[in-house]
Amino acid sequence: MSNAPHLLVEDRPDFARVLDEALRDESVRRALSAPGEHLNAEQLRTKCMLVAESVAAGAAEEYRHYTALRTALGEQPTGGRGGTAGSAVGELSGRLRSEEGAGLFPVLTVLAPILSWSAAGLLLAIGYTLRAADPDVTLGRTVVTAGWVAIAVGIGAMLIGIVGLLLTALRDGSAAPAGQDPHLLADVAEARAAWHAALRDRGILPYLYANLDSEPALSPRPAGRPAPPDLHRPGYSSATYSSPGFTSPGVEGITDPEGRQPRTAEFTGPGYTSPDFTGPDEV
């Protein structure tokens, strides 16, 4: 297991998908629903995703084979397995000729219903008009019959066109992309399915059973502020503080002009004089 290949980033969605399928397994669901204290499905999923590398190591051989085939598929030239440029040009010309020869059928399947229904509408209008004018006229009944036949032909052409469209879609969907070997594509798909099966049976399911009764995964703690220094640690001395000296200003008469030697404040009382009143006879 020490040389297990590293789980690539593009394959982690596959790992998560297989993990979800394993959590829906009947045996795992029974174990999760059993009485007692154990992890739930979400806690198991979180814990398994955190150790995806070690869990995927159980299917290391299948994963190595799958990635090797996928790398070989990606290194294939886009021009296909053919040889020279002349053969490529000949193949392209033959493909264009075949498309030109088969182009008449799609056109007919599109135009036939439109033309048939247009003719049917015209024939039915003429036929019913003739029958309304003279019910005994044979031409009216013939024209109405021709109109209904044209409607049936248009419906048949439309059904044929729908079937051809579906067959074309199925053919193009099953064909390999241009320049890629269909056999190698099938091998890559088979190797991917084998890796999924081995990852589920030998990696994820044993891990789920083994960690059902374990502690839940702890989310990573966010980085906080640094811790304050330990004041009781040897070699650490606390800072010394001294109270600042305050003096009252000398301009108020409490201290001398330099604020060092207190002296008695000198106050003078305000001078008051009594008001001068005169009696009413003096006025």
Tell me how many strands there are.
0
Give the structural class.
mainly alpha
Strand content: under 5%
Give the overall silhouette. Answer: flat
Task: Please give the radius of gyration in angstroms.
Answer: 49 Å
Regions with pLDDT < 50 over 5+ consecutive residues? Answer: 79-102
Largest sheet: none
Element order: H for helix, E for strand: HHHHHHHHH
Mean pLDDT: 74
Could you tell me how far the N terminus lies from the C terminus, measured between alpha carbons in angstroms? 130 Å
Number of helices: 9
Task: Describe this structure as you would to a colleague.
Keywords: Membrane, Transmembrane, Transmembrane helix. This is Transmembrane protein. By secondary structure, the chain is mainly alpha-helical. Helix 1 packs across helix 9 and helix 5 packs antiparallel against helix 9. The radius of gyration is 49 Å and the shape is flat. Among the domains are: 99 residues, no CATH class; 66 residues. The relative contact order is 0.12. The protein is 58% helix and 0% strand.
Topology:
Layout: H1 12-23, H2 26-33, H3 41-50, H4 52-56, H5 60-74, H6 85-101, H7 104-133, H8 138-174, H9 182-210
Region (Disordered): 218-283
Transmembrane segments: 104-128, 148-170
Biased composition (Polar residues): 237-246
Q: What are the salient characteristics of this protein?
A:
mainly alpha, 9 helices, 283 residues, 0% strand, Transmembrane protein, membrane, transmembrane helix, transmembrane
